[in-house]
Amino acid sequence: MISLTEVDEKITENIISLEKLVKKNNFDKNILITTTITCEEIIIPDIDNLSSMGIYFFELKLDGQITNKEKWIKWTNGFKTEWDKPKRKNGEKLKAPITYKGRIEAHYKKKNTFFKTMKWIPLYLGKSQELSKRINEHLNDELNDTTYSLKLGKRNFLKGKTIRVSVIEFDAKIKNYNVIAPHIERIKREDLNPIIGKQ
Asked: What does pTM read for this prediction?
């Protein structure tokens, strides 16, 4: 009978293989859409052709240039203020992810060349077993909706801004989504440090 230790060793081997595979799979090769926010419904052509499962990544195109830590902190403070400002009709906070200081700071602590190469702000990373539905919720949910989502298309301070959505689709044959997806999400989150979402 196989022991728990042997099972653990096999899991460790597979996690290492998964990490190597994920690091080769970049979001910039899997862009689903690049679009401008108009505060009206955002239509994604062929979104229904996506596989059901996968990881998705939202980015915001940078206007101008951020060249140093001080300008980055100023930009993110302004973004946070606007992001937290909208309320639901009953006065409660939006059902939406929040910004995280640690993720914001990680960009200038870990990457010396970050400000030289930054053209897109990493906003949000997530996983879903219903990719098309989940992405659409993040883009088009109303501010008052109770679904936990970004509600990007309805945030007035983003009107006229450009966003892009990228995906890593999973093969429909994958049976262990609940095991694989969290690991991929963690690996990508540690690499990309999206400023909104989990710590």
From this structure: 0.88
